[in-house]
Amino acid sequence: MPIKHFGSTTYALPDPNDTIVLKNLLHIPHINKNLVSVSQFSKGNNVYFEFYPDVCYMKNQETK
Predict the structure, then answer these.
(1) Are 3 and 26 in contact (CB under 8 A)?
(2) Hey, which end of the chain has fewer CB within 10 Å, N or C?
């Protein structure tokens, strides 16, 4: 499957001092699911995830 575009973007969080960075984004038109590498996302944004049966939390590694 060919990659049509690639890049990065930022997403603002409710706290105006915080943003999330999404790097190495690939646009592959024939894939109809959004995929994310939790490991790469965590490393790139200094966060960790807590997964539970009904909810997932993303937490800042410094402030918890």
Answers:
(1) yes
(2) C
